[in-house]
Queue: 4 jobs
Job 1
Amino acid sequence: MGEGAVDAAGIHALAAGLRERDLDVGWAVETILRSQLFFADPNLGTRILGPVEYVVGSARALELFEPPPNTLILAEFAGHLGQDLFHPPNVGGWPGGRSWITTRSAIGRYNFAFALMGGDEVGRSEAFDAFSLAERHGRGGDLKTIIAFYADLLLGGFPSQAWQERILNTLSPKAAATPANGRQAVALILASPEAQLG
């Protein structure tokens, strides 16, 4: 859930339940995951993804398993984005939330998205094939169809027609359905503000 997604009464009820159950964390996690608030529309897509979630989640969503990216390189990208695995800033861990998005990290996420598409900068022997994955899911076609498929896959829904047109126009209003344009479209979607939310 995002920041401020639950009102004070909900937090107090959870705290009271924890005290009544001798701080049974398992009960608390179950209560949160079963809560209607957890799945309420206003709470979805309101939390900024941490670097590891963004880096690994992008690779998994795009089904980059054969050949997979190099995990050490992915960890290095996450470190450049501010989350150096196994080296938190203190015992409390990373601050999270809005602190994940800075000018530097936004540029880093953009660079990661394009590196992931190219393949070699993340330890893959081949570039990403945007059309092949879409076809495996029965969504092949022109560039507009590809943009709609990846917007649904990576953002969890279909953004407005104007949003999709903006991605297409960034490529070129008359961009052809080439492998390079498919990769660039997916990278632009991954680098979009909407893709930074979970």
Job 2
Amino acid sequence: MSSTNPTANTCTKLGIPPINGTNRTGYYWQGKNFTSSDPLTAADRAILIDPDAANFATEIAKLKTLYQNKLVMTPLDQAMDRDGNTPVNILFRPNYYLSGLTATILSFNPWLLQNMGWLDYNGAPGTFNSTQ
């Protein structure tokens, strides 16, 4: 691990691909059958998901059936985040994995060091490496 950038290999450690340079994607929930009337019945609307209720498992099963029978996930045809028609790519900086301390907290204790990647109380770069 780099001493100047202690979180640079976080994605590697977690076994996930980096998100930098990508953009958010998603799905639309759409009705399977398009009609002029509402596809949801009164029974569909009466489904109540309450984790503390005795019938929680039954209600979850009803909701699952509703989604399977009446809805379909359709991928978005364009990126979720855009500047006009241009997709905006994600920039997740390594210092975002460990937040900086506020100026107020740093002002209370002159011995407290700011995390690397953030500015300290005097505006100087933080020197605390959380991985050491």
Job 3
Amino acid sequence: MQCYPAIDIQGGRCVRLVQGVFAEETVYGDPVDVALRYASAGASWLHVVDLDAARTGTPANRDIVLTIARAVPAKIQVGGGVRDAESAAELLEKGVERIVLGTAAVEQPRLAGELARRYPGRVAVGLDHRRNADGRRVVVVRGWTGESGIELARMVRDLEESPIGAVVVTDVERDGTMSGPDVGGLVDVLLATTLPIIASGGVSCVDDIRRLGAVQALGRRLAGVVVGRALLSGAITIEEALAACAR
């Protein structure tokens, strides 16, 4: 299981939100410094998100993202505001290994498919979700500010026909809370698709990472886990996270 240390950027700073609420941020310094620290500890991938771009569609932190891609030997997976072919091409041709389409994958599925075919294995889809009043897991868009009305399981199944590199599944209600991952929900996602699944949201300790490493359905396991606040707050060291994923 691959470890993806998360670097969320808002206003040029590395931050963590709680349940996707933009006003509830904790600042953790310079995102390039954080990236260098993770990479020097041995992280082979980083999960970088431009939060401002996710909300507005304008790549406010694009220069910082590309600086990270140039500065570290790790592979960079980037999401947030990638909503057209031009933005995707700029990132993928300037050092980013994989882009994550969120809103664009929901609202422009044809674009997502075209990009996945143009850049095999280098396009992921980010499915951020929360439970609605009926208890169904529904995909949210535009930096978690809008609800698509599409159920998570259905969206995952619809992606099967495209050569998607991975699906990043984020439980918004757990994101930034360190309340533990939604293991049952992740099993449901594994049952719904054969695509590689990267879990995101809720990791609080090394045992959570080990629990995710043990998740399986129909003989399939999770391809990776995104770890954010737990690393930045010091609840888990980067070395502990990497070792737990490797085991």
Job 4
Amino acid sequence: MSKFHPLAILLKFEGYPPAVVASLFLHGLLLLFILGRTVSPSDYVTIEDPVIVTATAVDVNPQRLRRIERLQQEEAAAARQRQQDRERQRQAQEARARQEREVQQARERAEAERQQQAQADAERRRQAEAEAQRQRDAEAARQRAAEQQRQQEQQRLAQEQAAREAEASQQASDNLIVAQYANIIKRLISQNWQIPPSARNGMMATVELRLVPTGEVVGATIIQASGDPVFDRSVLQAVERAGSFTELQDLAQQDRSLFDRNFRTFTLVFRPEDLLR
């Protein structure tokens, strides 16, 4: 703000209104002085007609020009100062606006990053949950498969156990049947065996019989001799006298495989002491 100068009022109104006021004030004082004074005839003077002198105002007043120039300089300086103040204010406003924009942009970037981070976290959580669910499903499937396999294994073992038991039962039944028919063959051959005088306890001859489903003997061979030819021939003669074993026909009809496994080739051991018991 420019400094106040007393002469600024005079210069602003070209110096005339204050001069008029001052002139009126002085004339007032002079009028009071005249009216308050006693006038004698000696005091009267003859007033001649005034000589009118026309005066023109001097347009160029160096002092006034200097004051005007100084005021103009001050006004220009004040204007420059105001311009500078406005420029600084504008720059300050622009700086504040730029700072606010930067702060806003930083906030927006931070918010965008936060949202991106939140989305990334949500995506990671979703993937983690999906992976956990996949693992749970895989574990449940594995457990179901393991349980199914365990049940199948138990069923297989049960079936195998049942099969073994059935086989064992069948084998026991087959063994019993084979033993029954083997006793029939042994009894019939033993009834037809005539032990020679040369037979002694401890002798043993093993004969192999070849049978057909009708029970007939189609071949007999000593596969382990006793050392006594007479004893061995007596064994073969006993087989020949027996001829056939018709009881085997029932077995061959009921269970051909059992006959084939046990009586297609049948082995008998002959000991003299067996007949003596």
